[in-house]
Automatic annotation (TrEMBL):
Reactions catalysed, as given in the entry: L-methionyl-tRNA(fMet) + (6R)-10-formyltetrahydrofolate = N-formyl-L-methionyl-tRNA(fMet) + (6S)-5,6,7,8-tetrahydrofolate + H(+)
Species the sequence originates in: Paenarthrobacter nicotinovorans (Arthrobacter nicotinovorans)
Broad enzyme group: transferase
Formyl transferase C-terminal domain location: 201-297
Molecular function GO terms recorded: methionyl-tRNA formyltransferase activity
Name listed for the protein in its UniProt record: Methionyl-tRNA formyltransferase
Amino acids binding (6S)-5,6,7,8-tetrahydrofolate: S108, L109, L110, P111
InterPro entries attached to this UniProt entry: Fmt, Formyl_trans_C, Formyl_transf_N, Formyl_transf_N_sf, Formyl_transferase-like_C_sf, Met-tRNA-FMT_C, Met-tRNA-FMT_N
């Protein structure tokens, strides 16, 4: 079966590798254009583009699936298009190009968390179970019938990055199995059922920690926005980036945002009990341990996060 693969970030690479390993004829890869990376803003291929070039697969770089991009896709005459985090909308005119349509690997248990940030929103919401599905892409936002499903437990210390990495590997197997079933004429997609929730793309503001919130909510948000856009707070008007925070239910006498240094441990008050800071990155500096950061404060017990 001739497959067009569409994807951009590193989490899509395992799926590309799995399809090649399974023997599918991956005729081309659609990915977003090279983007500036690092302080020097060097134009760099997407992780999927880089892997496709290593595999000797032709790459179509496009910021959106417009008329010209659709024509390029049609030139490869794919039987099916597999899409994993491409980062753009596929219009109706392109959906009908492959005879089996487009199959999307999505990292949630649809219809829960339809949208661009399903794993992040799941962690922030405190879900104990999540997963991934393959479904037939339609014009609606992640509304198509589901081919296959897998589940994954959300561990108490999982960041969104940790969870997404695991799902990208197991999801690659699911995608390969789905395409095999389609090729064999054995696929039977089922309509989505259950409660619908939305997972819009995270913004920088989503990473801001509100110390008036309960500790568990702060912990979940910090883990859900790691690694991107990152958890942060402010101190004297300066933005400070934080790594995920631990729970300290034994400390209940700190006001929200107030800091206490206990040996090598830095505690911060919340709307319930304290949390323990991981690493911290002050404005203009590198990430460091919270203990090292606290040692640089003249009177740490008077510091209050805003």
């Amino acid at each position: 079966m001739r497959v067009l693969f569409a994807g951009t970030p590193a989490v899509a690479v395992p799926s590309l590798d799995a399809l090649v390993k399974a023997g599918f004829d991956v005729v081309a890869v659609l990915t977003r254009p090279d983007a500036p990376v690092g302080r020097k803003r060097v134009l760099t291929p997407s992780p999927v583009a880089a892997r496709a070039m290593e595999l000797g697969i032709e790459v179509i770089r496009a910021a959106k699936v417009d008329v010209d991009t659709t024509a390029r896709i049609a030139e490869f005459a794919p039987d099916v298009a597999a899409i994993v985090a491409y980062g753009g909308i596929v219009p109706k005119s392109a959906l009908g190009v492959p005879r089996h349509g487009w199959v999307n690997l999505h990292f949630s248990l649809l219809p829960a968390w339809r949208g661009a940030a399903p794993v992040q929103r799941s962690v922030i919401a405190g879900d104990e179970i999540t997963g991934a599905v393959t479904f037939q892409l339609e014009e609606g936002l992640d509304t198509g019938p589901v081919f296959g499903t897998l589940t994954e437990a959300v561990r108490p210390d999982d960041t969104a990055g940790d969870l997404l990495e695991r799902l990208s590997v197991s999801g690659a197997v699911l995608l390969s199995q789905t395409l095999s079933a389609i090729d064999a004429g054995q696929a039977a997609p089922q309509p989505q059922t259950g409660e619908i929730s939305l997972a819009p793309k995270l913004t920088l503001e989503d990473g801001r920690l509100d110390w008036q919130m309960p500790a568990l909510a702060i912990n979940r948000r910090a883990r859900g926005v790691t690694p991107e856009p990152g958890a942060w707070t402010t101190l004297e008007g300066q933005r400070i980036k934080l790594e995920p925070v631990g729970l300290r239910p034994d400390v209940k006498d700190l006001a929200p945002g107030a800091i206490r240094v206990d040996g090598k441990t830095v505690l911060v008050g919340t709307g319930s009990h304290a949390v323990e800071l991981g690493r911290i990155q002050p404005a203009g500096k590198k990430m460091m341990s919270s203990a090292d950061w606290a040692r640089g404060l003249a009177t740490p017990e008077r510091v209050v996060f805003e």
